[in-house]
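Subject: mismatched residue count in predicted assembly?

I count 560 residues in my input, but I want to confirm that the predicted structure covers every chain. Input:
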Amino acid sequence: MAADAELSASGPLGIIAGSGGLPRRVIESCRAAGREVFVLALEGEADRAALETVPHAWCRIGAAATALDLLRANAVGELVLAGGVRRPSLAALRPDWQAAKILARIGYRALGDDGLLKAVIKELEREGFRVIGADQLLTEIALPEGPLGQVQPDPDAEADIAHGARVARAIGALDIGQAVVVQQGFVLGVEAIEGTDGLLRRCASLRRDGPGGVLVKVEKPGQERRADRPVIGPQTVSLAADSGLRGIAAEAGATLVLDRDEVVRLADAAGLFVVGIHPP
Amino acid sequence: MAADAELSASGPLGIIAGSGGLPRRVIESCRAAGREVFVLALEGEADRAALETVPHAWCRIGAAATALDLLRANAVGELVLAGGVRRPSLAALRPDWQAAKILARIGYRALGDDGLLKAVIKELEREGFRVIGADQLLTEIALPEGPLGQVQPDPDAEADIAHGARVARAIGALDIGQAVVVQQGFVLGVEAIEGTDGLLRRCASLRRDGPGGVLVKVEKPGQERRADRPVIGPQTVSLAADSGLRGIAAEAGATLVLDRDEVVRLADAAGLFVVGIHPP
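Triage response: the counts match. Full output below for your records.
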């Protein structure tokens, strides 16, 4: 802990900010703790409004040399990756010389999402940065085991959760995605590149009559937690309710819950369960 | 073959007709061969226009007793299952006593699509019907190995095909679906209950810049070919082209190609490859 404190004191925390609510949460948490930050905002991903009050610069994902220069110019020693990144095609990436060098080393095509993120973290560490997980900066956000709000899954929902967890784990092992929607034993949808929100939106039109389905979200086997943990938040609950689901089950311990109070309030109001599970 | 001829002569061929173009193809093939048919058209699935000129009756999927009565009243001894069926929820199924009895025996929830279809075929055989595959009634429609039209996949597309085949096989082993779309090494989408056409439509908005993706469709391991073979047709090619894909790879031998000439014409015109592969 003493070493951490020294590193922390050596400069602002660098935040590489992708999409979603996580970067804002990290910024707020640092502000509350009196920690300086420098945000490297990824173009097309980061939320502009979340960055207005803090030192930041925008950067293309493919501009690795620029990114490293910006981080060093702002005396960043410790880094956190926060938020989602829609993985671009190699053509859209337009890698600069630094990114091209990294890509040549790691092999872009051969890697799934998780493999690529692990490699990026390794490169950042090779460049001398210390990469920490967003969860180390936040408190009370890992999903506990059991129901989070008032609603509990019934035995039918439990069966869908068990089936979903098995399938989601297999999907994760293939590095395709983290989430599936299961209704009455059938897999309505599997998350791939569209993300969990996209999966939930399309499941609105795929649902069958009768008791609604369940979103099941789990960590990929061997997932790099510093870069890409399962996340649920108020938006997840709202979309699940809009799509006629009965609830959300996510991996306890591994899943970050953004704005837990609002998640519970929305879920209780909509009659949805939100439950932490231990997948097989 | 003599036994086949006897059975064939004993009454009209029963066609349980789901969605898509396959029922029409089977009807046309029987007409060309001078074989009488009786079509049991599944409500909400079968194409009304395809049935206008042949003896037929409509039936709910859950009305098994009615279905069996209709088949027997029309002297059907030999049956073919043709076309797609969107598996209903148990609530929407509204099983009659016969369907309820069958469901109680096989256990609805425990089965994936393929398991359910196998069980339905077993029940039909138990009731004394001979169930044959649609491919036995049609000619020249199994996808051969190699390219079907003028266009061939380049090495990048070959890499996407290989990755897609591996993933699709795994998705099939989980009884989730038969198809995936892969672009530049990433799984853009996985087919579940929405079907291949639904998968292709949503991949239009998920595609990345650069060379387009590939639809890969394979048989599920141990799939019941008499009920549910992979199918591609002109609609598949049109949707693939609309979604910016570069081509279609499907399992050689196992995949039915509907209207092969039109498939080749559309694919060549759009610059898409259609290729038969042998997945791992």
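The first helix of chain A runs from residue 2 to 9. Marking this ticket as 'not a bug'.
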